[in-house]
Design a protein that fits this description.
Order of helices and strands: HHHHHHHHHHHHHHHHHHH
Distance between the termini: 29 Å
Shape: globular
CATH class: Mainly Alpha
CATH superfamily: MFS general substrate transporter like domains
Helix content: over 70%
């Protein structure tokens, strides 16, 4: 019986992490394909940015709704719905004949991802209840997210050069179909659905939160561009008003989208702030590397993608060989700080990329360091928040923390690419890329500093590590797992 249960948990983990890989792969898979998409659909650089940002901003803006839906309706149901939506949208993007349809499909993909990811984390906490097993599960999950970004770049090059840009979206279809067919058998069943659960979803909060976050993500990124600065300032003010309205609404709501008590949990608020910086630092790095290798070193899409594959290999090896033990010995705070410090080192290394590259000495060492740092940060920033709250709040907590990373990613890639373009106009293309890497390194270093300031050490937080109870149900969590 024990062996069968272990096999079942392993199969569930493989399913969840395979979907995680595909979802995070789609954050970067389009980078190398952008020139081909632009040429085929007659999109300029501003339009191409929305092929990326439509996904990132919808992903971040809708994740709070996805997290609360997982809590109210059951994580397995919500996981299936989100994955089905993601898969259908992938088909729409791959078959689209017009630019606007690609952008719209990418936004729907982002909504599907936003619904799926919080449900994944809730399913992991239900499946793995022992501290050691949960640490290993989060390590694998974190590695898949980190590897997805790097594998997306490699796969994008391979697919674009071999089968055309449409294949980068259509490849999601068999994975989505297989995962949907297996979910009912491999994932833990949802608790009995309470009568009227869907009606308890906080629709005013959902509208205010989603709209406010989408406008905030667009406005902050657009502030860096002189051509859109006036509109961005107006939208930023509107976004702040909507988010203030969200706080007021949640304080009065019987079933709030964001239970404000969660914002009193130090691990939740600290992880949220730092995770925004994790996204803002690492996602632009892959775009900058692809631009450097293709536009200055004249790598083909395939060669450019394969050049970044060591990031994924390092992430997978590190997650398996080192992260569970490091998490147990040093705690999530130290793991997160170390991961961000390693990312800062790698990104600072890239600021010295020469006009003529030697891949083995100029790119590979930093790529390996980045690959080690990414899964450490992903696991270190997610596990403390999700395991510091009661089980009924696990989905919405995952939504809060991961919303921050997606919004941070959208803002980061917009602002850093605009910065690179601005510097390019005065100092040259390579100088612009170097400035972008420097900005990303600074964000990673800031995240490291805030980790040490905002997240208490394990010894100081042990007495406060019990989850805050939900209003109706008390569920304890293992303090030793943090």
């Amino acid at each position: 019986m024990g062996e069968r249960a272990t096999t079942g948990r392993t199969a569930a983990l493989l399913l969840i992490t395979a979907v995680e890989l595909v979802i995070f792969l789609d954050t970067t898979v389009v980078n190398i394909a952008l020139p081909s998409i632009g040429a085929d659909l007659r999109l300029d650089e501003a339009g191409l940015a929305w092929v990326t940002n439509a996904y990132l901003l919808a992903f971040g803006g809708c994740m709070l709704v996805g997290g609360r839906a997982a809590d109210l309706l059951g994580p397995r149901r919500v996981f299936g719905f989100g994955l089905a939506l993601f898969t259908v949208a992938s088909a729409m993007a791959g078959l689209a004949g017009a630019a606007w349809l690609v952008v719209a499909a990418r936004a729907v993909q982002g909504i599907g991802a936003a619904v799926t990811v919080p449900a994944q984390l809730a399913l992991l906490t239900r499946t793995f209840t022992e501290p050691a097993a949960r640490r290993r599960a989060f390590a694998v999950w974190g590695a898949m997210g980190a590897a997805g970004a790097a594998i997306g770049t490699a796969a994008g090059g391979l697919l674009t050069q071999g089968l055309g840009w449409r294949s980068i979206f259509l490849i999601n279809l068999p994975v989505g179909a297989a995962a949907l067919s297996l979910a009912g058998r491999l994932l833990p069943a949802d608790p009995p659905r309470r009568s009227g659960a869907a009606g308890r979803l906080d629709l005013p909060g959902a509208v205010l939160g989603t709209t406010g976050l989408l406008l905030l993500g667009y406005a902050i990124g657009a502030l860096a561009d002189r051509g859109t600065r006036a509109l961005a300032t107006i939208l930023l003010a509107v976004a702040l008003v909507l988010l203030a309205g969200l706080v007021a609404t949640e304080a009065r709501a019987a079933q709030p989208l964001i239970p404000l008590r969660l914002l009193r949990v130090r691990q939740v608020i600290g992880s949220t702030i730092v995770n925004a910086l994790v996204g803002a630092a690492h996602v632009p790095a892959f775009a900058l590397l692809a631009l450097y290798l293709q536009n200055t070193q004249h790598y083909s899409p395939l060669r450019s993608g394969l050049a970044l594959l060591p990031v994924a290999v390092a992430a997978l090896v590190t997650s398996r060989a080192a992260i569970p033990a490091a998490s147990k010995r040093f705690g999530a705070r130290a793991l997160l700080a170390a991961g961000l410090a390693l990312q800062a080192v790698a990104l600072a290394w890239f600021t010295a990329l020469p006009s003529t590259v030697d891949y083995v000495t100029d790119v590979l060492p930093a790529a390996l360091v980045l690959g080690v740092g990414l899964p450490a940060a992903f696991v270190g920033v997610t596990a403390p928040a999700v395991t510091s709250v009661a089980q009924p709040d696990a989905g919405v907590t995952a939504g809060i923390v991961n919303t921050a990373q997606r919004i941070g990613s959208g803002i980061g890639i917009s602002a850093i690419l605009v910065l690179a373009a601005t510097v390019t106009g005065t100092a040259g293309y390579l100088s612009g890329l170097r400035a972008g890497f420097a900005a990303a390194a600074g964000l990673a270093l800031l995240g490291c500093a805030l980790t040490l300031i905002l997240l208490r050490s394990r010894s100081r937080s042990r007495s406060r590590s019990r989850p805050i109870p939900a209003p109706a149900t008390l569920v304890s969590a293992e303090g030793s797992d943090r």
